[in-house]
Amino acid sequence: MEGEASVNKLHTQIEIKPQGQEPPPPYSSVVDNSEMDIQPEGKLPFFKSRYRQRASDTWLISLLVILHLVAFITTTLFNYFSTGSVFFQPLSENPLLGPSASTLDKVGALRRAFLVQNHLNWRFFVCPWLHAGIIHFAINISCMIFIGIHLERDYGPCKSIALSY
């Protein structure tokens, strides 16, 4: 009995209340949430705007996906007409199922020699639209759709284009 009494004495609870602050109101199932910013309990937002979503559609991401598709088709056709009869190079040359390296160089790939020696600065703006192959294109577009739509809804088209490129 003496051992149990000493164990019970060790487990005391001390409640510390901060000075100058009112205690939070007791939990009630009927709460007026019209004035409060509603957030799920236990989850902190990474970016504040996630809980204040905009009501706009995602026109910019749709436009960018279409432009990437047009650029990929144009590069593939350019590869077709420059090599003769092959849309994609063999797997030994391009394992991503895409155009040849020389075709990418012709349509705007970014290489130091082109920038330094030839001063072809337009390649800075063209290179993000080029894709090494259908696999690279599919991964890029899927990331653009899954991430870009959320960025555009949360931050608008101007900020999402700045974050994307």
Overall description:
It is a single chain. This protein is mainly α and 165 residues long. The chain has a domain at 59-164. Helix content is 49%, strand content 0%. It contains six helices and no strands. It has helices at 2-10, 59-83, 101-107, 112-116, 123-126, 134-164. α2 (59-83) crosses α6. The longest helix is centred in the last third of the chain and has 31 residues, at 134-164. The protein starts with a helix and ends with a helix. The model has no long low-confidence stretch (mean pLDDT 76).
> What is the typical, i.e. mean, pLDDT?
76
Radius of gyration, taken over Cα atoms and rounded to an integer in Å: 29 Å
Number of strands: 0
| Relative helix content | 40-55%
The succession of helices and strands, N to C, reads HHHHHH
Oligomer: single chain
Q: The biggest beta sheet, please? A: none
* Structural class by SSE content: mainly alpha
In angstroms, what separates the terminal alpha carbons? 73 Å
Assign an overall shape. Answer: elongated
* Number of distinct helices: 6
Uncertain ranges? none
Strand content: under 5%
Protein name: RHOMBOID-like protein
Catalytic activity: Cleaves type-1 transmembrane domains using a catalytic dyad composed of serine and histidine that are contributed by different transmembrane domains
GO molecular function: serine-type endopeptidase activity
Keywords: Hydrolase, Membrane, Protease, Serine protease, Transmembrane, Transmembrane helix
